Amino acid sequence: MRDDKYFLGYRRAEQERLQAQARQLAHESEWLFNQLAIGTGDRVVDIGCGPQGCLDLLAARVGSTGTVVGVERSADAVALAQAMVSENGLGNVEVIEGDARATGLPRATFDVATARLVLVNVPQPEEIVREAVALVKPGGRVAFHEADYVAHVCDPQLDEWTRAVELLDAYSRANAIDLYIGRKTPRLLRAAGLVDVQVNPIVHIYPPGYQRRSILADFVENLRDRLVEGGFVEHDELTSITQKITDHVADPNTTVVSHLFIQAWGHKP
User: Fold this and answer.
1) 3-state secondary structure of 236
2) Is the residue at 261 inside a domain?
3) Phi and psi (nearest 5°) for 185?
4) Would the pLDDT of 192 be above 70?
5) CA 12 to chain centre
6) pLDDT class for 262, splitting at 50, 70, 90?
7) 3-state SS class at 46
8) What is the pLDDT of residues 78-110, one digit of tens each?
9) Mean pLDDT value across residues 218-237
10) Closest of 40, 44, 86 to residue 62, by C-alpha
11) What is the pLDDT, as a whole number, of residue 1?
12) Nearest one of 225, 160, 182, 154 to 8, comparing CA atoms
């Protein structure tokens, strides 16, 4: 998958981080699903579900008469998601390997299409939004939970933190990825034809000891090979950057602010 421009890559540590993220963000996703009134018998697609996504949460909501389909590009992530489905006895969930831009699923057959933290990691995010809208029936609901790097800061400031963000931004721009897509997501939904688009912003302070405090260093490690091979930074400098960030966030006196998260949803006329 060297030609795959998915921002965070597919290394095993990233799959494990995504599995942890599913638990960490579950309450926020549950709130969003309440706004969508997802219930018994609904047919839902989770686009870019990764190794778990929201599959278990959605399965509980739609019940035995409903269906959840997870779509994921990475074969490794699909296998992990299928194992999770099997281990938890989620008989109403199917996970398929496919492209979020062209899932191959039948048009206008789902009650809900949703994705979490997908658009911020890929080129041409508008194509995924259009695919999600195409998959739902008239009256169906579409929801995205997206990130915007504008709020991801620390205090006291750290030069290596600033440098890491600059590197991620430079890499993303070179690969047509928008790290600030969160603020644009409501506009993308409207452009794709949704109406009554609603928005919910979320920002967190990550407390000492919380796994997501290290997320910036984790992302840099995901991109290490691509950053070095692409000439964005030297290997030794990158090693120093990640170590300084790791040490900084380990200090309980350091304040770590999350990304700005934007939940945006609407329905298809």
Assistant:
1) helix
2) yes
3) -60, -45
4) yes
5) 17
6) very high
7) strand
8) 999 999 999 999 999 999 999 999 999 999 999
9) 94
10) 40
11) 38
12) 225
pLDDT at 19: 73
Could you list the residue range(s) of the whole structural domain that residue 200 is in?
12-148+176-205+257-267
Q: Is residue 214 part of a domain?
A: no
Token readout for 22 is 């599913």
Number of domains in the chain: 1
If one counts every other C-beta atom within 10 angstroms of the C-beta of residue 86, the result is 12
Token duo for residue 252: 């309980």
pLDDT bucket at 14, cuts 50 / 70 / 90 = low
Rounded Cα gap, residues 48 and 99, in angstroms: 8
State which H helix or E strand residue 59 sits in.
helix 55-62
Residue 4: other Cβ atoms inside 10 A = 10
| Position 196 in a domain | yes
Q: What span, in angstroms and rounded, lies between the C-alpha atoms of 70 and 118?
A: 13
CATH of the domain at 189: 3.40.50.150
Is the pLDDT at 24 greater than 90, yes or no? no
Q: Is residue 220 part of a domain?
A: no
Tokens of 112: 């809900």
Band the pLDDT of 72: cuts 50, 70, 90: very high
Secondary structure (3-state) at 107: coil
* 93/211 Cα distance (integer angstroms): 28
pLDDT at 269: 98
**What strands, in cross-sheet order, belong to the sheet with 205-206?**
154-155, 255-257, 205-206
Query: For residues 7 and 170, what is the distance between their CA atoms, to the nearest angstrom?
Result: 12
Whether the full predicted model's pTM is greater than 0.85, yes or no, is: yes
**DSSP state at residue 207:** P
CA distances from 23 to 28, 57, 201 (A): 10, 10, 19
pLDDT band, very low/low/confident/very high, at 41 (cuts 50, 70, 90): very high
CB 44, CB 90: distance < 8 Å: no
Facing residues of 198 across strands?
265
